[in-house]
Amino acid sequence: MNTQTTKGVAVVTGASTGIGAVYAERLARRGYDLLIVARNEERLRALAARLTAETGRAVEAFRADLGDKADLARLEARLKEDASVAMLVNNAGVGSVASIETADVDEMEAMIFLNVTALTRLTYAVVPGFTARGSGTIINISSVVGVAVEVLNGVYGASKSYVLSFGHSLQKDLAGKGVRIQTVLPGATATEFWDVAGYAAQKTSPITMSAADLVDAALAGLDKGERVTIPGLQDDDDWSRWEDGRLALAPKFNNAKPSPRYGLS
Ligand code: NAP
Known about the structure:
Helix content: 40-55%
CATH superfamily: NAD(P)-binding Rossmann-like Domain
Largest sheet: 7 strands, parallel
CATH architecture: 3-Layer(aba) Sandwich
Order of helices and strands: EHEHEHEHEHEHHEH
Radius of gyration: 19 Å
CATH class: Alpha Beta
CATH topology: Rossmann fold
Strand content: 5-15%
Bound molecules: NADP nicotinamide-adenine-dinucleotide phosphate
Number of helices: 8
Number of strands: 7
C-alpha cells in the first residue's frame, strides 16, 4: 500500500485503452489518485483494480459516454464539486480517414461533440476550482493533424486545430493564476484509434510511435514547462518558427482599408 500523500485526483478521459490508459498508469505512479472515464466499464474496472494493486492509489472508474449530454453533465457536476481534482487530461477522442464525399455527417457531428464540445465543457467545469485554489493542470490532447490538416479527415483535423487554438487562448486567459495548460500533439500512435478511424494498418507503420513513448515524452514536456508538446517532432526550432510567424501576423490583420491588392482605391 502506498502511504505517500496524494497529489490530488487526476481525471483522465478515454482511459479504458490507448493513450489514456497509459496516462492513467503513469499519473498513478507519479502519486495522483485517479478518476478514469470511458464507456467500457469492464476495461475501466480492470485498469482501476490493477493500478490500485500496483500503486496503492485510489482509482475510481467513472463510466460515461461523453458523446451523451446527460453523461457529460454528470461528469461536469462531479468535477465542479470535487475540490480534490488537481489535473484534467482531456484525452477521449475519435478520428476518421474518410473524405467529405464518403463520411457520414451525423458521425462528423458526433466527432465534433466528443473532440470539441466535451473537451470544452470539461475544461469549463474544472477552471473555477483551479483558479480559486491557485493550482491545477489541464492537458488537452490535440494531434499533429491539427496543423497538418490535409492528412486525415477534415472534420477530425479541424477538431484538433480547435484543441490547439483553445489551448493558446486558455494560456492567455489563465496566465498568472497558477493553472498549467499543456497541449499535446501526438503523431501516429499505435492504438485502437486507427481501427475506429478506418486505417488499421497505420498501427504497424514504421513511423508510428508506441503509446508508452508518446505519454512519457508528453509528461517530460510537461515537467519542462512546455505549453505545446509534439513528441515526434525532432527539432523544436521548427515549431518555434511556426509560432513566431503566427504571432508576428497578429498585429498586421486589422486595417480600416482593404489591401491595395484588391484594387478598391
Ligand atoms: P483509442 O485507443 O481509440 O482510445 C480512445 C479512448 O477514448 C478510449 O478509452 C475510448 O473508450 C474513449 N472514448 C471514445 N469515445 C468515447 C465516448 N463517446 N465517451 C467516452 N470515452 C470515449 O485512441 P487513442 O489513440 O488512445 O486516442 C486518444 C486521443 O489521442 C484522442 O483524442 C485522439 O484523437 C488522439 N490522437 C491519437 C493519435 C493516434 O495516432 N492514435 C494521434 C493523434 C492524436 P471507450 O471506447 O471505452 O469509451
